[in-house]
Specification:
- With 298 residues, the chain is of the alpha+beta class.
- It contains 10 helices and 4 strands; from the N terminus they run ααααααααβαββαβ.
- It has a 4-stranded antiparallel β-sheet with strand order 2-3-1-4.
- The N and C termini lie close together (11 Å).
Length: 298
């Protein structure tokens, strides 16, 4: 591979990253404008704060609220976290309210009604949480953010060593709680917001790790050499040998370890059973795999 090829490949990868971040932000902001904002569902983060402000300051634009809060948090992040995180965070932070503003205009122009008066509220929660989780997951998977409370999470982690999961629950929980006590959302809507947060989190994790549906397989067999050759030459996967001792027999054994795609795993099962029907093997799901053959092209 020449330098020009590698340069073009890196450029294509970078362009695709920004494309997927843009699509992800567009999907997440669609869920906010067409479902959450319309029904005053106070979810966590800056989006929830914007709905609270909209209800307390009549006629205030939620997109403007998100933009102002994101700019404040970006400045705070720049001071406390440095400029390395700033580029993609700034892009998502500005693009998110821009899309919301566009979708709000489109919603009014099309004279749509996605409120609880015309749609079942549980359907609204399910559909919007899936969209929001998918959009945010796509953004996170490609190294971007939509700004907001993620900046506070990074600050809390750096200076207070608070885990991201804990700070997420604390920050989102506070916003949802304030939505309730300030009478922006009823108790029923607040409970719906909790369900929304849970489902969108699951969907987001699924999207972030969707490219890593792999199996780590551990094999103990009397036909290890035959199985190893199949893995190395027909699958073109690396294999690691681990020396082990069976505690019952006290015999030295060799364990083969290999990471495969789900499709390859089912082919491997047939090969193991062909060479050694009595082989002992098990597979565990690898939530993320990095390295040759998985996270970059060979």
């Amino acid at each position: 591979m020449g330098p020009a090829f590698l340069k073009n490949k890196a450029l294509r990868k970078k362009v695709l990253e920004w494309f997927y971040i843009t699509v992800g932000v567009a999907i997440a902001s669609f869920a906010f404008s067409f479902f959450l904002n319309v029904n005053n569902i106070v979810i966590g983060g800056v989006s929830g704060i914007s709905i609270i402000i909209k209800n307390k300051v009549h006629g205030y634009d939620p997109a403007l609220s998100i933009l102002i809060v994101n700019i404040i948090l970006l400045i705070l992040g720049l001071v406390l976290l440095g400029k390395e995180f700033l580029i993609k965070t700034t892009y998502g932070s500005l693009l998110y309210p821009a899309f919301i503003s566009f979708y709000d205009w489109l919603y009014k122009v099309l004279a749509l009604d996605f409120s609880g008066n015309s749609l079942d509220m549980m359907l609204i929660i399910l559909f919007s949480s899936i969209l929001m989780g998918a959009g945010l997951g796509m953004v996170m998977k490609h190294g971007g953010t939509t700004g907001g409370t993620e900046v506070l999470q990074k600050i809390a982690f750096k200076y207070l060593h608070v885990p991201f999961s804990a700070s997420l629950f604390i920050l989102d929980g506070l916003v949802i709680f304030f939505g309730l006590i300030l009478n922006v959302a009823s108790l029923q809507i607040t409970l719906y917001a909790v369900v929304f947060t849970y489902i969108s989190g699951i969907v987001m994790d699924t999207v972030v790790f969707s490219g890593f549906n792999k199996r780590a397989v551990y094999i103990i067999s009397s036909k290890n050499e035959e199985i190893k050759n199949e893995l190395l030459h027909k699958f073109e996967r690396g294999v690691t040998s681990i020396k082990a001792t069976g505690e019952y027999s006290k015999m030295a054994r060799e364990i083969l370890v290999c990471v495969l795609s789900s499709r390859e795993y089912f082919r491997l099962r047939q090969i193991i059973e062909k060479y050694d029907p009595n082989a002992f093997y098990y597979a565990v799901r690898a939530s993320e795999v990095r390295g040759e053959g998985f996270s970059y092209d060979v």
